[in-house]
Amino acid sequence: RNHFAKVHLRALSSEEIEAVRQKKYVPMASKLRFIPKANGLRPIVKVSGVVEARAFSRESREKKMHHYNTRLKNLFSVLNYERTINTRFIGSSVFGKDDIYKAWKKFVTKVLESDGEIPRFYYVKADVSRAYDTIPHNKLVEVISR
């Protein structure tokens, strides 16, 4: 259970669970699993794996999933907008394989069009360690809660 604190998670008390159940709007709760890493665990949430799915009708569950996915799409749209307007905001970061290809192609084309000697090209894929830990979780929760 030590990994919960490390990734800013905690188990809800019985009182907190009951308070959530009494609300008119019941938030989506998904199953959480952990993938082992060299120095700990990576939390993975499957949005479609709704906890206590039996409590909701299929129609209600799908409606909640649609609402949740719409919120995520809206947040992603904001990130994409910021990425196009403020390119320095994300530096050389890319959003997926298509962006990697575009950046790589632009770089290679520029080098090939120069009249110098053609160098060997190398591609390095890296995983930034502790990237998840740098997210300001209080701000993230505030944004998602709106």
User: What class would the helix/strand composition place it in?
Assistant: alpha+beta
Strand order of the largest sheet: 1-2
Poorly predicted ranges = none
- The total beta strand count reads 2
Q: What sequence of helices (H) and strands (E) makes up the elements? A: HHEEHHHH
Counted by DSSP, the helix tally is 6
Beta-strand residue fraction = 5-15%
Span of the ends, CA to CA: 30 Å
What portion of residues is helical? Answer: 40-55%
Radius of gyration: 21 Å
Name the overall outline. Answer: elongated
- On the 0-100 scale, what is the average pLDDT? 75
- State the major sheet: 2 strands, antiparallel
What does this structure look like?
The chain is α+β, with helices and mostly antiparallel strands and 146 residues long. It has a domain of 54 residues. It contains 6 helices and 2 strands; from the N terminus they run H-H-E-E-H-H-H-H. It has a two-stranded antiparallel ribbon. A hairpin with a 2-residue loop joins strand 1 and strand 2. The protein is elongated, with a radius of gyration of 21 Å. The relative contact order is 0.07. This is Telomerase reverse transcriptase. It catalyses: DNA(n) + a 2'-deoxyribonucleoside 5'-triphosphate = DNA(n+1) + diphosphate. One of its GO terms (molecular function) is metal ion binding.
